[in-house]
Write a structure and sequence with these properties.
The chain has 9 helices and 15 strands. It is α+β, with helices and mostly antiparallel strands. The strands form 2 sheets. Strands 4, 5, 6, 7, 8, 9, 10, 11, 12, 13, 14 and 15 form a 12-stranded antiparallel β-sheet that branches. It has a 3-stranded antiparallel β-sheet with strand order 1-2-3, with no helix packed on it. Strand 9 and strand 10 form a beta hairpin. Helix 4 packs antiparallel against helix 7. 30% of the residues are buried.
C-alpha cells in the first residue's frame, strides 16, 4: 500500500513535487531495505523538509473498503450536510491552450464530471444518465436544456481547482444543477455555472413531466431551501437569447461530429457544442479577448452523421451596465472600460434543412497582460 508521510492538507500541493526514486540504485536506501522496497516517494511541501515513505514490494494497491476503487481514489466527497458535493482537480497539460490556461471546454468537462460523480455518490445510476430507480423502470433520462458558465479567472497548468455542485427542483418539468468554482490554493471564487435539465423518454425522445415518485427520489439530496449560484437579480443566466438569422456576420459551415465527440450514450457530447460555437468566432476576437461568459440553449439532439453550421454575429450592447457589473461579483475587480468587452449571438443548425440545434450568447473581455 502506498503511504505518503505528508499531511492531508499538504498532499495536493506536494503532488506535483513528488518523485519516485529507484531503490535499486546505490546510495538511495540501505542495502537491507532494497529487496523489500519497490519504490520510494519523496514529498516536499512548501516550507517543509523532504520526507521518505517506503512502498511495499509488489504492485501498489488500495486496501479494501466501502465504495468503488474510483470512489476511494478521487479527490471528492459529499459535504458534511450531504446536500452538495465537492471535488478537486489538477489542471493537466493537455487541458490548457497556447497561453497555458485551461480552455472553456476543459471547464465544462470538469463541471460535467463533478455532476456525474455527485449523482453516483448518492447512489444514482452509473450509465451516464444519473437516473433514479423509478426513471430506469420508466426508461426516462435527463437531457440538458440550458447551460450558463461564467469564468472570472482561468486556472493555469498544474493549478488545483475545487468545484462544488448541488441540484434542486425546477418547476414541474425539470431540475437545475449549480456549480461554484474556486482556486483551491487561495479559496478565491474563479467561476460559477448553472444548468437546467428536463426529463425525456429514451425511446420516444419526447419530453415528460417529472412525476412525484421521481421528485421524491432526488429531492432528499437537494438543499431544503433554494440555493442559487447566481442569486443576483437580472443576472446573465436568466436572459433570453434571440435567434440569429441567416444574415450572420461570421460562419463556419459543414462541421461534422468526430467519433471522439460522441458520449457514452452515442450522442454528441454537450461540451462539443461549445467548441462548434467558437469555430465561427472571428480570429481577431480569439487573439485579443478571452471568453468570460457563455449561455447555450439546447434545442435539438445532434447525431453522429449530422452536418452542422455555426453562425455568429456581434450583439448590440443594450445595457452596458450589466456587462460592467459582471466582473464585479464574488470579489472580482471593479468594472473596467466598456470597450474592453464585446458580446456575440450564436446559432448552430443542421446544414441540410436548417433546423436549429442550439442558440447561444457569449461575452468576451480583453485578455490580461501576462
Amino acid at each position: 500500500m502506498l503511504k505518503l508521510s505528508c499531511n492531508a492538507a499538504d498532499q495536493i500541493q506536494a503532488l506535483a513535487q513528488c518523485r519516485f526514486l529507484d531503490p535499486s540504485k546505490p546510495g538511495l536506501l540501505p542495502s537491507r531495505r532494497r529487496a523489500a522496497a519497490a519504490a520510494v516517494v519523496s514529498c516536499s511541501p512548501a516550507g517543509k523538509a523532504p520526507t521518505l515513505a517506503v512502498v511495499s514490494d509488489g504492485p501498489a494497491r488500495v486496501e479494501p473498503g466501502p465504495g468503488s476503487l474510483a470512489d476511494r481514489l478521487r479527490l471528492g466527497s459529499l459535504t458534511e450536510d450531504g446536500l452538495s458535493y465537492k471535488e478537486r482537480f489538477i489542471v493537466r497539460c493537455y487541458e490548457v491552450g497556447m497561453n497555458k490556461t485551461a480552455t472553456v471546454e476543459t471547464i465544462a468537462n470538469l463541471l460535467q464530471e463533478v455532476g456525474g460523480n455527485h449523482a453516483q455518490s448518492v447512489g444514482f445510476s452509473t450509465d451516464g444518465f444519473a437516473t433514479t430507480p423509478t426513471m430506469r423502470k420508466l426508461n426516462l433520462i435527463w437531457v440538458t436544456a440550458r447551460m450558463h458558465i461564467e469564468i472570472y479567472k482561468y486556472p493555469t497548468w498544474s493549478d488545483v481547482v475545487e468545484i462544488e455542485t448541488w441540484c434542486q427542483g425546477e418547476g414541474r418539468i425539470g431540475t437545475r444543477r449549480d456549480w461554484i468554482i474556486k482556486d483551491y490554493a487561495t479559496g478565491q471564487v474563479t467561476g460559477r455555472a448553472t444548468s437546467k435539465w428536463v426529463m425525456m423518454n429514451q425511446e420516444t425522445r419526447r419530453l415528460q413531466k417529472v412525476d412525484d415518485d421521481v421528485r421524491d427520489e432526488y429531492l432528499i439530496f437537494c438543499p431544503r431551501e433554494s440555493r442559487l449560484a447566481f442569486p443576483e437579480k437580472n443576472n446573465g443566466s436568466l436572459k433570453k437569447i434571440a435567434k440569429l438569422e441567416d444574415s450572420a456576420q461570421y460562419s463556419r459551415l459543414g462541421l461534422v461530429p468526430r467519433r471522439a465527440d460522441l458520449d457514452m450514450n452515442q450522442h454528441v457530447n454537450n461540451v462539443t457544442y461549445i467548441g462548434w460555437v467558437l469555430e465561427s468566432m472571428p480570429q481577431e476576437i480569439i487573439d485579443s479577448y478571452e471568453l468570460q461568459m457563455i449561455t447555450l440553449d439546447y434545442r435539438r439532439e445532434c447525431q453522429h452523421d449530422d452536418v452542422v453550421d455555426s453562425l455568429s454575429s456581434h450583439e448590440p450592447d443594450e445595457n452596458s451596465e450589466d456587462i460592467s457589473q459582471l466582473k464585479g461579483t464574488n470579489g472580482s475587480a471593479a468594472s473596467p472600460a466598456a470597450e474592453d468587452y464585446c458580446q456575440f449571438l450564436h446559432l448552430l443548425r443542421l446544414s441540410g434543412d436548417g433546423l436549429e440545434i442550439n442558440r447561444g450568447r457569449t461575452q468576451w473581455r480583453k485578455k490580461p497582460i501576462r
